[in-house]
Amino acid sequence: MKLVLTDFNRENTQRFKASLTQASVDFVHVNIQYDGFLDPDILNPFSYFMGYYQMPEKHRYFNQIPLPPFYEARNADGAKSEILQGDNIVGYIFYHPNTNRLVKEVVWLSRLGKKVTAERYNIQGQKYADVIFDQDEKESKIVYFADDKPVIDYDLATKHISLKDGGLTHSFNNLTDFVFYFIETIVKEKYGYQFDEVIYNNLATPLFVSNRLPQRATLYFQEFIKDAIPGNMIGILAGRTPTKRILFENIKQLKKVQDLATDIKIPLDYLGAIEAFRRENDYSQGALSITFSDQVLNADAIAETLAKRGKSWTIAAPTEVSDKLRNFANDHDNVNLIERISGDQIDQLLATHDFYLDVNRGAQMLNNIYRAYHEGLLVIADQKTAKNGGYEVILAELPDILGAIDRDNYDSLMKLLRNKKGKPATVAAYQTQFGG
User: What's the whole-number mean pLDDT along residues 386-403?
Assistant: First the structure.
């Protein structure tokens, strides 16, 4: 069994886990940070000690947040609502990314408009933490709760963590010590997981924790290097840590390290993601955009180009749209406007289109760019509005965007999109690297 140790449960982590699962690699996943929205198969020290591990979901929407008398919450955009006292903005309700307005955080402002405190909510719809900000609006302290009682006190200035558990209070000098304690006492002793290798994908806390564990470690590198090798990687490359190899998800990053590094004593290799596409498209269906905003760049030119090529354009919105967008749809016979879509409708929309056009400003809904890519759509983005560059063909000039909608360019652009990080890996490649 492998221990997969990650800092944040972001898209890159989910992509790596999906590849391991497809290859039948046996692993347990510990994710260090807690943002309230973790899959039930993920072990997390904060979630565990608060009692939320594997609890059923019970979402809380922005209009379900209790507010003082005479306060109101008004949706501002796809990312947040404003909390108003009369005409004054006294706070914000931020939604969890890629959800339909599920509450992630409520931030309260001072009279000067600066952040003072925040309340954080999880996928169970419960307030799980209070946050205190300093004068520079940086987080200075987070208190985590279980049944409305504080159980974890995290001082971000000193890095000290205090844990109340089983009638005892445990003190930790830093996050690394806290996570190490969780792995030793809960993951290994209580749940009985035994692993022969640690796989981590971040050069911060996951690296520091892996250095404390006796098992050999593998860095699965998914980040981007600019002009110099990260300081924490230099020691790894020189063989001075328990990390015995580095696997790169992006072949360009592997080549960059090989070019820049002067002391490499451990193996380096390329291992991309295992890509699973729901279908192969043939340019027979139209284009789709999902938007919270009426700011669609070059909308008329795109609609006219699609019409000339016999293609429709579906613009779907999770809310009611403005007159601007309605008038635009009325002006173009090939534009189909759908308002107030639900999350359940996205799969159907993706299945009935061959292009995804990311040409609107604002947030995306329910990770729809990533989902469009894996549905098999050709995802085209304007450079000014691109929301998930790893899964889009990003173009800067309008003529190039319009040209991308042409049948003659479809196959070459699709190949370009699917090989942005390098050739996709196979199940056999993962089993060779990790067993299975």
Answer: 95
Q: Residue 41: is its pLDDT beyond 80?
A: yes
For domain 287-418, the CATH architecture is 3-Layer(aba) Sandwich (3.40)
Report which secondary-structure segment, H or E, holds 381: strand 378-382
Return the residue matching tokens 């190949």: 415
Closest CA to 151 of 135, 137, 167: 167
**pLDDT recorded at residue 78:** 72
Residue with tokens 């691109």: 386
- Locate the domains of the chain by residue range: 2-51+171-270, 62-168, 287-418
Three-state DSSP class for 276? coil
The model's pLDDT over 302-342, given as tens digits with 9 standing for 90+, comes to 999 999 999 999 999 988 899 999 999 999 999 999 999 98
Position 279 scores a pLDDT of: 86
Per the structure block, which two tokens stand in for 149? 């009682």
What is the maximal distance between C-alpha atoms in the chain? 72
Classify residue 99 by its DSSP letter.
S
Q: Whole-prediction pTM value?
A: 0.86
DSSP labels for 102-128?
BEEEEEEE-TTS-EEEEEEE-TTS-EE
Lowest mean pLDDT among 42-56, 141-155, 207-221: 42-56
Which residues have CB under 8 Å from 414's CB, separation 6+? 281, 378
Using DSSP, state whether 225 is helix, strand or coil.
coil
The domain made up of 2-51+171-270 is a member of CATH 3.40.50.11930: yes
Tokens for 30? 């510990």
**What one-letter code names the amino acid at 207?**
L
